Sequence to fold (814 residues):
Amino acid sequence: MNNATLCMSLMRADTETEVISILRTAGYWDNPFVWRPIGDDDNNFATIGNQQSEAIAALIEKIVNGVDARLIDACLLVGVNPEGLDAPRSIREAVARFFQGKEHPTDRDGRIAEWPNSMATEQGRLLTVSATGRMPASGKPSISIADQGEGQTPGSFPNTFMSLHRSNKLRIPFVQGKFNMGGTGALQFCGGESKLQLVVSRRDPALLEDGASERDFHWGFTVVRREPPAHGSRSSVFTYLTPVTDAGDPRAVLSFAADEWPIFPEANDEVRDAYARSAPYGSLVKLYEYDWQGNKSNIVLSGDGLLRRIDIGLPELALPVRLFECRPSYKGHGGSFATNALGLVARLDDNPNLEPESPIGGILALEGRQIKLRVYVFRPGKAKEYRPARRAIVFSVNGQMHGAFSEDFFRRRTAGMGYLGDSMLVVADCTDIEGQMREDLFMNSRDRLRDSPLERQLQARLAEFLKNEKTLRELQNRRRQEQLAERLQDDKPFAELLQDLLDSNPMLSKLLFQGFRLSAPFPPGGGTTGSNTFKFEGKRFPTVFRFRGRKDNQPYTRNAFLGSKVRVSFETDAEDIYFVRDLDPGVWSVRVKAGDAYVNVTNWAAGDLRSGVVNLSIENLPPGTKAGDRVEYLIEVTDPSRIEPFTNHLILITQTGSAKGGGQGGRASGGNTGKGDNGGGSLLALPAITEVTEEHWGLHEFNEESALKIQSTDGEVYDFYVNISNKYLRIAQKESKSNAHLLEKQFTYGLVLVGMAILQDYKQQARKRADTDKDDEGSRIEDIVANTTRALAPILLPLIEAIGGLSLDDLSPV
Fold:
């Protein structure tokens, strides 16, 4: 067969067995002399086998390569050198200039979320992902990724698709992939022993220079396979098919001449074919029998399928990607087989499933580099439609996820977001982190963070930001009120009964409440958002930015405590998205005076700008600062509209002590005695308790053996949730002669008292180890209480009955 027929046969094949048969018939599979090591490195498995740990992350690298190819092609077609000074400085700018014709982009330009659906579909049909295969839905489909990008000549395959460690895109500022590693990461997840992949590509003819050879205009193609370790070798080697002699190179890829080639899919009522539409140039990569964890059903449907996982892996996708389900085993109307992936951030714009305050913005400065935060809070029960629990905090670079934390992070004591944890998504844009710092923070595979001091510092800073962010605190308190409002009145009989129990058992009261800080169910003033009816109208480019309550350029002098963070508020007429918008954002500069010069402060955070007010937090005072010192900060804010930045001088007079001791800006600590209306009485000190029935198990991750769950808004005050549909309670109610309602209350009160005792002990032990503030997820107090009470539940009621029935007559003499 000729090369074009061979290429099409390989494109139509969907299993390793089929591919091997085709290549064996062509005389290539068993010929060791027509296979060349990727990167010309016989030890390439050391690199290829040490990339992404998940198949979806590796697949996303292929999509990123397609996005980059389209952006570079568009740049070259208008005569701009991608590495030159007149090239776009960002991905958004490139999209705005080359795909929207915007020479001077605004904030809304270059954002595919703003495109009409027809435009997104038109562009998405030139960057596609399709699934093929005749296996049932439970099998492993083959995945094809196609793009009408710059493409490559057959002779350039060794230096592009089949290279390792080359800096092909390192100096191009507007692409997502830069490290020439991700192209091979998907190989390990291809099915079978040989891990097969097909690559087909043609260079955009408009980009070929005068004097290009006839072969440069060809479509080139090759197959990648894994070969087992040779004799004396420890590891496999990945090779690609190179049976051609080209310009003195005896190991070149196959090629054929064609003005167009069908690399793009089509899926509608009439046809479902992964290779139905022709392109004049571009690239196709096919991953045979690709195996990923999770749902492999129709790839265009939402839920836990491929569409959602691409959206979250590329939260800020530069160009639309269109997904096509081409497997014949699926039935449905035309719209069931094709859809656009736009990235998670685009899907969340003006999304009705979000709380109205979302997104909440912020800036973290980490070792002098700024991380842009966008915090989305979903309405109850909606977050799972957009992100899995293990991807609740997404760290992105150039719009691509480089690592993630699970939603357990929100429930840590240091983050204090227990009521919002299952409803939050944080997108942390780490694009500003470069060089060695990026290497220290992210693994080279770009799918997880490195366990390093920098990563632990990031965790601590992020947790602190979440816990102290004003809008998040208000949202959390509102969510808590919504959950408890309907049953607060029902707590009073329990509170009174428990109070009687404690009054009649002084030792129990002393054990539970000694040194235990307790508060009213809600903080004073309600803390709800949205109570202010004033509508703030911010400006795209502000005209003022100054200390709150002061005049322009007026210095602000205040006391600061050694060892404490410094927080200061600013007022402005900027719009809320000023610091976190994509184009022309406001930029902070925070410097401290050292001698006669100002130097950058490396660790600080700026909260959400809301209705003209934003708070800045400086992590610590300069090393060596003593009581009585005068520390001067220069805080500047600027944007492209300004010739000179807004300048604010902060002067701190340092002193010993702590802001928590009741001094300026501090709060007086309350005791646990007294009966006043301000939260001092023990009735208000009791935890809020909710009885959970089986129909609401899903809201609390309960099952039939769950007993007690505690949840906190701030790591100090806890609410208690008791499973009154517990299996052992039901058995006791069925088999015991005691009153069923009484058994339920005994079960509830017993668990609550046990939970309070565990919590009290945990807090006492925490004070003893206060010098180590490690937040060990394996010993979270919430987990300790849940696990202990689950183990206790089977014996709790029999124990109460048995001990309560004891008398001296029943006891044997000692």
